[in-house]
Amino acid sequence: MRDLPVNQLNPKIKRVWRINDAIWLTLLFLVCFVPFAIATAVEPAGWLFATLAIIVGLYALCLIVWLVVLPPIRFARWRYELSDDYLDIARGIVWRKRFIIPFIRVQNTDTRQGPILRAFGLSSVTVATAAGEHEIPGLDVQTAEQLRDKAAELARLAQEDV
């Protein structure tokens, strides 16, 4: 079996993942909690209070798992490597995925930067093939631009060789 790729993401990506996950978990919590809170305010019932307590408990448990436990593991499992012939991406905690993307198949390379990534000075590189897109998140802006440009150049050279 092939060794894991050598390059890791920028460690700041763990904070970005925590912020993204906290936002989504809080929105999900509010969608679940507010209707039961309104129902409890209108007509108090024991089962409604119990349901609210269960929702709050699940929210707290999810916050611990997604904000404390998963980011370091996710960070350790995310790796990438750019060679002259292909881009190698390995990721996943439970379901581990390994992508070997030959540059002959690459159609487009992009960098993306949302507001949270921008706040941390990070960017993502996306490599598109006919089969779909593959993203490498959480690279500092300069590294992302260099990776994007090198991947685009290697894809161009691979197309010329055909």
UniProtKB/TrEMBL annotation:
All copies of domain YdbS-like PH, residue ranges: 76-149
Record bears the keyword Transmembrane helix: yes
InterPro entries in the cross-refs: YdbS-like_PH
Keyword Metal-binding: no
Residue intervals passing through the bilayer: 21-41, 47-70
Keywords carried by this UniProt record: Membrane, Transmembrane, Transmembrane helix
Domain of life of the source: Bacteria
Full protein name: PH domain-containing protein
Organism of derivation: Gordonibacter massiliensis
